[in-house]
UniProtKB/TrEMBL annotation:
The keyword Glycosyltransferase does not apply. It comes from Prunus mume (Japanese apricot). This is DELLA protein RGL1-like. It comes from the Eukaryota. Belongs to the GRAS family. PROSITE patterns: GRAS. A motif (VHIID) lies at residues 337-341. Keywords: Nucleus, Transcription, Transcription regulation. Its main location: nucleus. Residues 518-594 are annotated as: SAW.
């Protein structure tokens, strides 16, 4: 394997979208969407970046976007949010709702069970996640909240934020969404541990950790506290009290406000849905009347929202370019390259691989074959294949696209891929395995087939989150801090009234967090697990984790340098795995694997 790095110096993302879109005769709207975005963005980039850098500068230094400038026009009228001036308690019965009673037997038993577990259980079969010793709160029951909240300390009147991966002095700057949540968590734990704390908190809102906070930060902390109290009452099955607290959340939160207000808005919705499910007001079957949104289906074709995210939010490019670099290195001496994509989506990342292979002079490629596995959306995957075929033709690259369509992953077989003994095979899994955690037999079926194929490298990008706990409060806290970091990122990277931001938050984020928080049993489809769990799982199949090369890490650095928000995107190594996050909160993982 060589560490030679391929270059994107001539790679024009806008041009790629043109070529990929223009060949799709049955889907003219894709091309129109790209053109629309270009028109929308030019004025914004000219005003904010000029010729000095920003997204447009990628063409000169990195060649990813060429000279095309992207942004979003403010298509929605501005929403003037009214300042909430009502007192904390008022007539809403909040003091009664926030009373911290002695734990009810069912909830007490639940908390004792958490304390015994120490691990977060998962549905991935026979997996032993790495154990972490935690200081459990015996009264509040939010052990993870206590863990998160301990990262915020006060030293000599200054505010210092500490975490295992990120240390930053926050004096003189606005707190991030996660920092707001840590302050709220610390206050909530403190007040919930003493009966007198509730009355004191409501009567004297600045008594606990409020000195030095701005008016907006103070209100945001209070808002998160109400959300935490609501979640605890849901955990107690005290739904009437939870409802009163959620009424307050509704008054103070907004889907068009700042990042804290937005994340509370969607988590409040999720808690209300959970209450409705638990009380029988709404059944899972009744929820089918809601307009459905399939994230995986939406990602299978280019659209304004996914394109805007690709351009403005760095996480996707970081993982994709580092992953492509790893494939290039592992097929450096292969004349026939076969990539098996477990979840192809719009496939735009493969245009980068095509460019890298075409640029090889010492070992010309005789054939690049991409096999895409699908269990649904046949037409969309076929359209992706046609766009990739057209792009390869424009580069004079011998190319073959194969759709491996199966009704169920249990039906996947090795011979479906029409493997050639002269091919060098690589497997690419971008957020594909997480979709099968809820169906362990499907996940095991896919792994057995991959093991028989024995690819030269398996590239795995996954969500770095613990969203699979059977314990509601554990799952809620994990999801709150995870999505809090994402909402903070979007607040930084996208305009407040950007319609693509609203779609991203309401449909992509909103549906996801609602499923994590509100659903149970088979209805809970989203069950993300962290890299330690995947390591244990892959080890069962004789897979060994391998290092990312210096060239892959250099690609990460190049990508981040071309984002204005790149300095807030944190990258850390967890062993041989790359963790990509926002201001110290890991959100995605990239790991490479080989069979022993």
């Amino acid at each position: 394997m060589t560490n030679a790095m391929f270059s994107f110096g001539e790679f024009n993302f806008g041009g790629v979208q043109d070529k990929l879109s223009s060949t799709d005769k049955g889907s003219d709207t894709i091309m129109e969407e790209v053109k629309k975005i270009r028109k929308q963005v030019h004025s914004y980039e000219a005003d904010n970046w000029g010729d000095s850098g920003g997204f447009g500068s990628l063409g000169s230094d990195y060649g990813f976007y060429g000279n095309n400038h992207y942004s979003s026009e403010l298509l929605f009228p501005k929403f003037q949010q009214q300042e909430e001036q009502q007192p904390l308690v008022s007539d809403y019965g909040l003091f009664d709702a926030m009373q911290f009673d002695a734990l009810s037997p069912p909830f007490q038993a639940c908390l004792e069970e958490i304390a015994k577990l120490e691990d977060i259980p998962t549905l991935v079969p026979h997996v032993e996640p790495k154990k972490e010793k935690r200081d459990f709160s015996s009264l509040a029951g939010l052990d993870l909240l206590n863990n998160y909240g301990s990262g915020f300390k006060r030293l000599n009147g200054e505010r210092i934020f500490e975490s295992s991966n990120y240390t930053d002095q926050v004096t003189g700057r606005k707190l991030s969404t996660e920092e707001i949540m840590r302050v709220a968590g610390a206050r909530f734990i403190r007040t919930s541990s003493q009966a007198s704390g509730v009355a004191s908190m409501l009567s004297h809102p600045y008594e606990f950790s409020f000195s030095g906070l701005s008016v907006e930060e103070t209100r945001d902390v209070e808002l998160v506290e109400f959300l935490l109290a609501s979640a605890e009452k849901v955990g107690y099955q005290q739904y009437e009290r939870a409802g009163k607290l959620l009424n307050r959340c509704d008054l103070l939160s907004s889907s068009t406000g700042n990042s804290v207000e937005r994340v509370v808005y969607y988590f409040s919705e999720a808690l209300r849905e959970k209450i409705d499910r638990e009380t029988g007001r709404v059944t899972p079957k009744g929820l089918g009347n809601r307009p459905s949104f399939d994230v995986n289906k939406a990602m299978k074709r280019p659209n304004e929202t996914s394109l805007a995210c690709q351009i403005k939010i760095p996480f996707g490019q970081v993982a994709q370019f580092a992953g492509i670099q790893a494939i290039v290195e592992n097929v450096a001496e292969a004349k026939k390259v076969h990539v098996i994509d477990l979840e192809i989506r719009n496939g735009v990342q493969w245009t980068g691989l095509m460019q890298a292979l075409v640029s090889r002079s010492d070992c010309p490629v005789e054939l690049l074959k991409i096999s895409a596995i699908g269990t649904s959306s046949r037409k969309l995957i076929e359209e992706t294949g046609k766009r990739l075929e057209s792009f390869a033709e424009s580069m004079n690259l011998p190319f073959s696209f194969k759709l491996v369509m199966v009704p169920d992953m249990l039906d996947l077989k090795e011979d479906m891929f029409e493997l050639d003994s002269e091919e060098t095979v690589a497997v690419y899994s971008e957020f594909a395995m997480r979709t099968m955690v809820a169906q362990p037999d499907r996940l095991e079926s896919a792994m057995r087939v991959i093991k028989k194929i024995r690819p030269c490298v398996t590239v795995v990008t996954e969500v770095e989150g613990n969203h699979n706990s059977p314990v509601f409060v554990t799952r809620f806290i994990e999801a709150l801090f995870f999505f809090g970091a994402y909402f903070d990122c979007v607040e930084t990277c996208m305009e407040r009234n950007d319609p693509n931001r609203m779609i991203l938050e309401s449909q992509y984020f909103g549906n996801g967090l609602r499923n994590i928080v509100a659903a149970e049993g088979e209805e809970r489809k989203i069950r993300n697990v962290k890299i330690d769990v995947w390591r244990a799982f892959f080890a069962r199949y004789g897979m060994e984790e391998i290092d990312l090369s210096p060239s892959s890490l250099y690609q990460v650095d190049l990508v981040l340098k071309n984002f204005s928000c790149g300095s807030s995107c944190t990258v850390n190594m967890d062993g041989k795995c790359l963790l990509v996050g926002w201001k110290g909160t890991p959100l995605q993982s990239l790991s490479l694997w080989k069979f022993l």
